[in-house]
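Changelog-linked ticket: 2-phosphoglycolic acid example.
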Amino acid sequence: MRQKIIAGNWKMNNTNFDSLLLIDELMNYSFPPDLRIVVSPPYTQLSLINEKLKNLKIEVSSQNMHYESNGAFTGEISALMLKSINVYLTILGHSERRTYFNETDQILLKKIRKALEEDIEIIFCIGEELSDRKSRNHFNFIKNQLENTVFLQKYDSWKKIIIAYEPIWAIGTGETASPDQIQEMHSFIRGLISEKYDHSLANSVSIIYGGSVKPSNAENIFYQPDVDGGLIGGASLDSKDFASIVNAL
Ligand code: PGA
């Protein structure tokens, strides 16, 4: 049975004060017990927020990590450091990391391997540019991203891999992919997992959608049979919006 997941990616937003307030506000809402709720604060707040959420059902993930355990990598954070503060989940391959910090599939492959080796679960982001979609290259593009990275992992590793389909043209732009476009791509991705591994694995992997998910469109997106939840950016910074997105799943 695949899990339903809503993850809030706070990106480089919120002071400690803002984040604690956001969590306090979220505590006023009740959420369905059968789904995973995740928040992904900036590095400096991981410990603080993890501590604050200790007895709650909300999990904490980091937004990134490095592929080495330690060493001369100024400004980077390792899997061991995350584990030392009880963070066992990370986003990898977000399009903003790929675009602004030149993270390639090759670099991401190393990060995936390190995370899995250290037993850290991954929310792995993939997604095409608008130009790929316009030139009808989007399926090929996604297939390539998968083949270069997660498809090089062994069957058992998939217990720790969540796929986030985030078309780049829909992130932070207010432009959402239509529910049909999303379902079409999610079902394509599941089909590829089935071809590469098997049907039972494909059916157990959570594939979540990200890109301008809002309270007004969440229900129609989550209604699609191959959509197992969402990775939420902007709307995760507002407790009311985030809660209503969680309750739409
Ligand atoms: P957005 O971001 O919801 O603000 O479009 C999604 C993401 O980047 O994960």
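Closing comment: Example verified and attached. The beta strands are 4-9, 35-40, 58-60, 89-92, 121-126, 161-165, 207-210, 229-232. The first strand starts at residue 4 and ends at 9.
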